[in-house]
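job 3f2a | input accepted
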Amino acid sequence: MPLNLNGLYPAFLTPLDAKRNIVPSVAEDLLAHLMSTGVDGTYIAGSTGEGLRLSVEQRKLLTETVSRALPKGKKLIVHVGASDVKDAIALAEHAAKSGAHAISSLPPAGNYSHVRAFYDDLAKNSALPLILYYFPKVAPDAFHDSQELIDVCDLPNVVGVKFTDFNLYLLQKLVKHGKLVFNGYDEVLAAGLLMGAQGGIGSTYNVMPQVYLQTYRAAQAGDWETARKWQSRSNAVLDILLRYPFFPALRAVMAHRGFDCGPLMSGEEFSSAAQRTQFLEELDREMPAEVAELIEWPSFSGR
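job 3f2a | predicted structure (303 res):
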């Protein structure tokens, strides 16, 4: 019986210290917190987890750390994308040996022929099922039309797509084609589920997994009014996050929650300490009360 990968997966934040070394203890604590909320698993070393900026050895350490700490019944999807397919295959082999349940990969730079050859090679050499990562904002040259994406989806051992785009018509075409599709843009999770997505993978699932679970469960029950309500509430928080440098803001929120994930590999940061303070104050002031209560936002009791 094929493994059921449906559900919600936070795109895991990779905890780093000041020297950009992975901090396993923080990774374990963050994982335990996320899994306790009821999400189905986690997706590591993708765009949110800065996978392409980490060394192969760092990515292996992250996989080992998360796999070892993952509670029974939860699932691990490992992003193995790399510029060299040999590195991607090595990471896929390591993920399988570490107990992961599936792999995923962004397309490499290059035209469609190169992208197709990369995915074909990776899928053939992976003991785990492969989930494509469709993200035209990051890889605009990978697929020039929907048929190219569908053709790559039909390669043996490719089970589905992490779909980070607003083209929900194409998302539905993939679902109708029989593929597992994860909605990738957090701000349209309810819409993606309405169009047939079987789950979601998202950055801000780190911040408010309980809210996205409300959206997901309402969608599963066909209660679209409730799904839309919770989507609107999560989007109110996204509106605040998107006013600031997004990934530094995401890490600031988690540090405020007690999970200090450290700096970004890229060095991206707030423009100043004052901007960081302003961001957290805006969250305190503008976060919907229902969201603050549900996620147990630290300052909620003082509002």
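job 3f2a | The beta strands are 7-10, 41-44, 75-79, 102-105, 130-134, 158-163, 180-183, 199-202.
job 3f2a | closed
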